[in-house]
Amino acid sequence: MITKLFHKGIAKKVLTNLANSKTDVKIAVEWFTNPVFYKTLIKLNENGVKIELIVSDDNMNFTNPKINFQKLIDLGIKIRVSQSPNLMHNNFCVIDERLVVTGTYSWTLRAELYNFENIIVSNDKELINDYLDCFANITENTTEITEVDKFSFSTVTSQAEIDFEFGLESTPQRIEIIADAQPKVKAKKHSKEILEQIKKAELLYISGKHQDCIEFCGIMLIENDQVEEVYILLAKAYWRAGNIKSLISTAKKAQELNSELYQVYNLLGIGYSKDGKEQLSSKNFNICIKKFPKDHVFVRNRAIASIDLESDPDIPVKFRNKYKIKADADLERIIEIINELKEEDLDCYQKYSRAFAYSQLGKLSLARKDIKEAIEMYGEVTDKLEKDKNQFTEMKKLLSQLKKAKE
Fold first, then answer.
1. Taking 80 as the threshold, does the pLDDT of residue 170 lie above it?
2. Torsion 41-44-48-52 (CA) sign
3. Would you state the pLDDT for residue 177?
């Protein structure tokens, strides 16, 4: 569970969360006069996100020529207003029923450029449900607008305040929905606070709490969108959660920040393989393995990609045979890499990789010996950051398969 307060760069933080929505957004804001938010809603609608918007019954909300509420309505976005004298004084939105953004911040130019405001971003399930109940209650006490021109709005805000608000449109807004990342070669030095957050995200990932890791990394990136380690952890969590499209797009963002992140090429190899793009998968695996030819994890993941293709019944047999040859070569290479090391120096993950290779090559007795030792060694690991539950789950799965397999 993550709950965090922000009081600087609020528009960017709200917009970034909105841009990451996938299914639906429920918005209740007293005033909606900032054209940047209007454009964002149109973009979300184009991406298939369902949007509901509640605003106050105030003429100021409907007199900005740069915000066409009728267009939003025609696009299928539900617009509702509270009826005077009952002012709708909330400022919150619920995104995909997984995140709530709430606080003093109205979606206006004045709030962004002049006022001292704050928002709280939280993935607390109980809090989100409370806000969903709040939204439902407001909805019952508001009126849906279908034709803006036929609706008579109240005048709550003075003309002087309206003129001031719209006069701010000539002021440049330093707002981007998602910041353009400039390619970097060397990683930045991080503050102690960021390093602690990265460690927390890593612990969520290796303990198998993938959704929590995804949400924690997402909130981290609102304020620190140039931290490549967070993108890597986020991509890995998406992979384990089965969200392959997000794995690929997130790994690409990390790659934009640092083209020498070879973990990223490995993740892209995995992602493209799962997405059925064999050539791109092979290209990315080859980049990281060329740089680190003795990294057994990189080689194992490339082998798994070939094994998946080999077992795909939709692929012609002659091509499947080609993938089997590739897979076997990588499996033999894994054994070779690990056998070059002293047996007493091997860790549980190296034992697991070799057990996996033996099992795929039909050397079941050797595989059983290695996987049992790997699992036993895993239990002896004391450093939390060294205990990867994701790989331990794979170890137990392999052991189960080997128990059922016949020589």
1. no
2. negative
3. 43
**pTM of the complete model:** 0.61
Contact 138, 90 (CB under 8 A): yes
Edge-first strand listing for the sheet containing 99-103: 3-6, 119-122, 99-103, 91-95, 24-29, 50-56, 78-82, 142-145
Q: Long-range contacts of range 62-69, CB-CB < 8 Å, 24 or more positions apart? A: 62/148, 62/153, 63/162, 63/166, 64/33, 64/35, 64/166, 66/35, 66/38, 66/169, 67/32, 67/33, 67/35, 67/38, 68/38, 69/145, 69/148
For 321-379, what is the HEC assignment? HHHHHHHHHHHHHHHHHHHCCCHHHCCHHHHHHHHHHHHHCCCHHHHHHHHHHHHHHHH
Q: Measuring CA to CA, which residue among 24, 150, 145, 154 is closest to residue 78?
A: 145
Looking at domain 3-170, does it have CATH number 2.60.120.590?
A: no
Class of domain 186-259: mainly alpha
In the chain, what are the domain boundaries?
3-170, 186-259
